[in-house]
Amino acid sequence: METTPSSELVTSYHEAGHVVACHVQGGSSQIECVSVRPDETNAGRTFAEAPWTVYGEDDDWLSKEIVALFAGWAAASLIVSEEEAAEGCGGDDEQAAAWLAKLPTGAEQRLREQAKVLTVEHRTIIERISRELMDHESLDDAEIDICFEIEAGEATERDLAVYRAHRLHLVRLGP
Length: 175
What we know:
The structure is a single chain. Helix 1 (7-25) runs antiparallel to helix 3, helix 1 crosses helix 7 (123-136) and helix 7 (123-136) packs across helix 8 (141-151). The protein has a three-stranded antiparallel sheet with strand order 2-1-3. 65% of the residues lie in helices and 7% in strands. It is globular, with a radius of gyration of 16 Å. It has a single domain, classed as CATH 1.20.58.760. The longest helix has 19 residues, at 7-25. The protein has 175 residues and is mainly alpha-helical. The model has no long low-confidence stretch (mean pLDDT 87). It starts with 6 loop residues before the first helix and ends with a helix.
């Protein structure tokens, strides 16, 4: 009997897809944190700076942002069908539609394909971030950077553990 991935795992892949797309494209949103802790409207959430204040809304920036939105769906599609992956993309699709209206006709299919290629090419880091989200529910920007450094051989699991211990110590001390 074939088992299907849990909704939490699908959400962690979805959010990891957004993070990885923003990180590897450059010139798009800078991620502040990502969470798979559900709230009243979302199963997970990726928080980014207000990028339009930095980059403006030119076609290149819009395309990268739309690819980052579609990368949530594309990453989840690595472990479930595209139709199942699309079930949690309502907000992403609404934002993408608003931005797609500013681009030439036909951009949606091209950008969805770019998101698919990006997630396949970066599957190992998506899997790492997904695992971290499953274990810790949220990651801040430094944890995300360390995950990328581990994948590149520039950091170790110990570096991530030391960072987390230090952050926890600071939280316990308070202001």
